[in-house]
Amino acid sequence: MSYWAELMLLWSGQSLAMIGTLWIAFAVVRVRSAAERYRLWLAGLIVIAVLPAANVFVRTFSVALPAEAPLRHLTQLPEPLTPVPPIVAPSAEVRPAAPSRRPDPMPILFGLWVAGVLISIYEPLRSYLKFRRLRATALIASGLPLRVPVGYSTEVRAPMLAGIFRPMILLPADIKTWADPEEQRAMMLHEAAHFERRDHLLNAFQTLLGAVLFFHPAVRYALRQLTVERELACDERVLAAGARAEAYAETLLKAAERSIAGREGRQPAFNTSGKILDRRMTMILNYPASSLNSSRVSQFLRAAIVCGLAFALLPERGIVSETPLSIPVLVAGVPVISLAQQTTTTSAPAAVAQAIPPAAVQPPAQIQTGSLSGTVYDPTGAVLPGVTVRIFNRSGGVDRTAVTNDRGGYALPQINAGDYTFEVRLPGFANHTRTILIRAQPEVQDAVLQVGRAMTFVEVSVEAPQTPAASPAPSPSPLRVGGVISAPNLISQPKPAYPPGARAKLAQDVVLLDAVVATDGSVQSIQVNPSGGNSNLELIHAAIEAAKQWRYRPALLNGTPIEFPLTISVSFKMQ
What are phi and psi of 415, to 5 degrees? Predict the structure, then answer.
């Protein structure tokens, strides 16, 4: 088998292992966010795409052992025996049999692969040229608050994002006759989400990888999953922007009906079997706000797992010497000589030099130590005394703590060099955590603590709570000592109205909202908290409209009004 055939076979096996691992991971761990599932599938396919180059690199470059001067000693060997003369056969003309020639299948397989790649890339290339022509002839729409241009075309039947390097949202010219303004907005938000996620560029990568590995069923399955998760991720963005689930589902059905009936160009968002459309409708009608909750740390760890798996899939390449050594080995006083030496040697020497590698003696490792110091501040720049500073290393079991003095400083001497987790805690402030590197020298690590988050609980059936008195501001001092926080106090709270539609459906829920109390006491930047129930859109809208009218006495940090994060809990209960 040729070198390139071995690489292609290795690549196919690695791709199968990678996709199988991702499939098992999704079966074991339920990832609720479509955007996160899309990122994991995309990371796996990117690893598959770079594996051939990695395989060639690993096979080409190897690590050579350093040359060492071996110790040699002489061992006396017995006298060599008289060599037996070779037996010569009688002279006769012997004609070797002609070797049988088998046809090499590699050129045929290579030709079939090239033909498959060309066939696979023909339809995407034709669609790209068609959409390029449609962009040039489309009627540009103006006045739309989108970062991507929008145009109307008579040759498209459903909205789409056309183009790779200069994409444009193409809308049917008659869209106003079959979609109301709310439905048009939802469709444009979906296509704009594709643009913001750079799906037009990643789709080109997906098409190229699918054409090269058209013969691989596992890769084709992964590419289909990537398409499905991409559409679901854009649907999540539309619903998160405030679109009603029922109205958006009806809009999707209209667009799918027109797209499948027309069958013009490539429409990855729908297929004739209805599987993609069925998954999208199920997600929209059962959309939970918690599906958007994804931890950046967990995403980083999962990406690290995918990269580690990619390195594990690379072919193993041991540490070898650049020049093979042919050293005779002495066994029970008799040298063992290779077959090549037996056929070429006519007489044995009286003494043979035997190489004995020197024993490697490692010097005792010296433990390097350093020190850590710094100052802790609040957001206004004032120092914070009495703050607990902790560093710990889980791998080494090291855990050291210190408390800041009246000037906000701390010191930790005699720390072994290495990576540590640096953690600062003080009640009323958010925890400050990061990773630091301790070297064999004094290190300075300052920290700025941010204010924590307050919580407001509201029940629609009860009156607003009484306003508590504000805490007095601290007296000034030569050294600005911070840490005095006064949480915002609620002074005006119009109750949310129970929506008639939710009351008719006997809907009850607890709506969690994240907001910011501004320095003037108004409630701003209201968003739905992903960790709550938030299953009824009418209750969410009622809670948001009421929270916009609330007024607080602003939070104070060292006597100065500041913006303060706030979590609002609104409980809708039936009496």
Answer: -115, 130
